[in-house]
Design brief:
Strand content: 25-35%
Shape: globular
Number of helices: 2
Structural class: alpha+beta
Distance between the termini: 88 Å
Order of helices and strands: HHEEEEEEEEEEEEE
């Protein structure tokens, strides 16, 4: 009698085990069995202290570079310029500080590309933004912009033969107007946020946008 109860108990236990084994097995869609979706990254997009999302830097795996950012010849020219400009700072520059990206486009309508350069790392960037340089095709320094947020726009409008530059207002938290318009005068771009024209609308679609979040700028080292 006891042996029969033991056999009955073992049979019941086996049935229960099989039930749980099958009920806990994850369902597999045959259509997806060969293409399991990778886990999505939870890494947040980098943002500055004002909540403006900064553009993603280019990397070797990103094919979505703007054609205005990839010229090796232009990168070598800029690299030489940066070496000379920051030679005395090399002792304190970390590898992360010696990186740059650029957009090349004509700012003065002479048929030659000029270079708008974005410098990175803690040496050139802080909570208020980063340092940007504008060089003409002969590597003459046209402007140095400190503490800027991107994106930056080359306007379709010109002043004194040079395209205006549209920037985020540094007073964006206090100012309902998000952008300011910088113009070329007296041989340079005058960056005075208090005197700059405030724009009442977003930049025109005819503007060239630089360092936005749709297209990456290829990164180089100097």
């Amino acid at each position: 009698m006891a042996s029969n109860l033991q056999i009955y108990f073992i049979q019941i236990t086996g049935i229960i085990s099989l039930f749980f084994l099958h009920s806990c097995k994850p369902a597999i869609n045959d259509n997806d069995s060969d293409s399991i979706e990778p886990e999505k990254s939870t890494k947040e997009s980098p943002a500055d202290t004002m909540g403006i999302v900064k553009p993603t830097l280019g990397n070797s795996g990103n094919k979505n570079y703007s054609a205005l950012t990839t010229s090796k010849e232009s990168a070598e020219k800029i690299k030489t310029f940066l070496h000379q400009k920051y030679l005395k700072d090399f002792d304190v520059l970390k590898p992360a500080d010696r990186k740059f990206s650029f957009f090349q486009t004509d700012f003065n309508n002479d048929g030659k590309d000029d270079y708008f350069i974005h410098l990175y790392g803690s040496y050139f960037c802080n909570a208020e933004g980063c340092t940007y340089l504008l060089l003409d095709n002969d590597l003459n320094e046209i402007a140095v912009f400190n503490n800027l947020y991107s994106p930056i726009y080359r306007s379709d409008k010109t002043t004194n033969g040079w395209n205006d530059i549209i920037l985020f207002s540094p007073d964006i938290l206090k100012d309902e107007h998000q952008y300011i318009n910088i113009v070329y005068k007296n041989g340079k771009y005058s960056y005075n946020s208090k005197e700059a024209e405030k724009l009442y609308a977003t930049p025109s679609q005819n503007c060239i946008v630089m360092w936005d979040n749709e297209v990456s700028a290829k990164e180089f080292s100097f």
